[in-house]
Design a protein that fits this description.
Layout: E1 12-18, H1 24-34, E2 39-45, H2 51-59, E3 64-67, H3 74-84, E4 89-93, E5 97-99, H4 104-113, E6 117-126, E7 141-144, E8 149-151, E9 154-155, E10 158-159, E11 171-172, E12 179-183, H5 184-190, H6 202-212, E13 216-227, H7 238-255, H8 258-281, H9 285-300, H10 302-313, E14 328-329, H11 333-338
Parallel strand pairs: 1-2, 1-4, 2-3, 6-13, 7-14
Antiparallel strand pairs: 4-12, 5-13, 6-12, 7-8, 9-10, 11-13
Helix pairs in contact: 6-7, 7-8, 7-9, 7-10, 8-9
Length: about 350
């Protein structure tokens, strides 16, 4: 038993993927100050032994460090940490987050309430504007009928002020990887993060596979974490746009039923071309290449996509519809957002507290 372990409270492993981010010390400081729960912290360093990590080691000698010999990406770092994790639960936590007081207990209690709950997400608030929901994950993730994702608190580029409108714990379609609470045995059973994503959409893919296996995803808004969105890649840059477009298509191909894919993929290809035009009209010519490049990658990697699809479909349980009612809006958020002016998840999905 570790010195900080309280009798009856099971240690939770916190996995922090890191690459030369100055905010690491702030993240660890908040983590040890506000967890009020026995934790084991693993920092996975995806690059050189940077000064930020050296300072973290000096201030927090209890952290464990796993080193990658080169930049292998967010997914690889997360998986290395999860493979070293022990216990019932683990949390993937970005190094650009700051947890708040007593953030961990509500997550553990939610996990303990139902063995079918495989993942949870705290309420994520913007670190730069704490009165607003966070862009990356808000209070939990949803998806629409065309496979476009949105959040409780963010649709397209519209961010909502946090006024308690998403303070009910409800079922989600996906939980954000910036602060992702996982039942470790279950996540290992369905396979951890797909390394082919490198970064972006990897947590949505994992949550989708958990749903295919018959498990549930829950929001836990009584747990609050602050997050600096967009620190890894500039939000308007080509690489981020490319990964978002490509990985969105990949996650659909891996996890959707054949019947849905038959009509959706041609439509999504047209929408990708429309996105090119949209970026051009917005003056971002470099981003306009991202949807074309994402389509090109998918068309040129059919065997890779088929292999990854087989793995996902092999865990599908009979009679499980992963696009069931939980966290799914059957219509199109694009039509709702641009034509009807509906800007919030609450306006689209009637939420029922659990």
């Amino acid at each position: 038993m570790r010195p900080d372990t309280v009798l009856g409270e099971r240690e939770v492993t916190i996995v922090i993927p890191h690459r030369d981010a100055e905010v690491l010390v702030d993240c660890l400081d908040a983590l040890y100050q506000h967890s009020h729960w026995p934790i084991r912290v693993i920092v996975v360093d995806d690059g050189p032994d940077a000064p930020s990590l050296q300072r973290a080691r000096l201030r927090f000698p209890q952290i464990e460090v796993i080193r990658n010999d080169r930049n292998l990406g967010f997914c690889y770092s997360c998986n290395r940490g999860l493979e070293a994790a022990t216990g019932t639960y683990a949390v993937l936590l970005n190094d650009d987050t700051r947890v708040t007081d007593h953030w961990l207990r509500p997550l553990v209690e939610m996990g303990d309430s139902d063995p079918a709950i495989a993942a949870c997400q705290p309420k994520l608030l913007s670190a730069s504007r704490p009165d607003y929901l966070d862009y990356a994950g808000g209070a939990g993730g949803y998806i629409d009928g065309l496979g476009f994702t949105f959040c409780r608190g963010r649709m397209i580029d519209h961010l909502e002020r946090d006024e308690g409108q998403y303070d009910a714990p409800v079922p989600l379609f996906w939980a954000c990887g910036s602060a992702l609470f996982l039942r470790l045995e279950t996540a290992t059973k369905v396979g951890l993060l797909d390394l082919g994503f490198f970064m972006h959409f990897e947590e949505i893919d994992l949550c989708w596979r958990l749903r295919l296996a018959g498990f549930r995803i829950m929001s836990v808004p009584s747990s609050v974490v602050l997050h600096h969105s967009g620190w890894s890649l500039p939000p308007t840059g080509y690489r981020k746009k490319y990964l978002n477009h490509r990985n969105n298509l990949v996650v659909l191909f891996k996890n959707m039923s054949v019947g849905r894919l038959a009509w959706l993929l041609p439509l999504r290809a047209l929408l990708e071309l429309a996105a090119c035009v949209g970026y051009l009209l917005g003056g971002n010519w470099r981003a306009s290449l991202a949807p074309l490049a994402s389509l090109g990658w998918c068309l040129s990697h059919p065997f890779d996509l088929l292999r990854r699809r087989r793995r996902s479909q092999s865990i599908r349980q009979p009679a499980v519809d992963a696009l069931g009612s939980d966290g799914v809006f059957r219509g199109s958020i694009l039509l709702q957002y641009y034509l009807r002016g509906r800007r919030t998840a609450a306006a689209l999905i009637g939420e029922k507290e659990e």
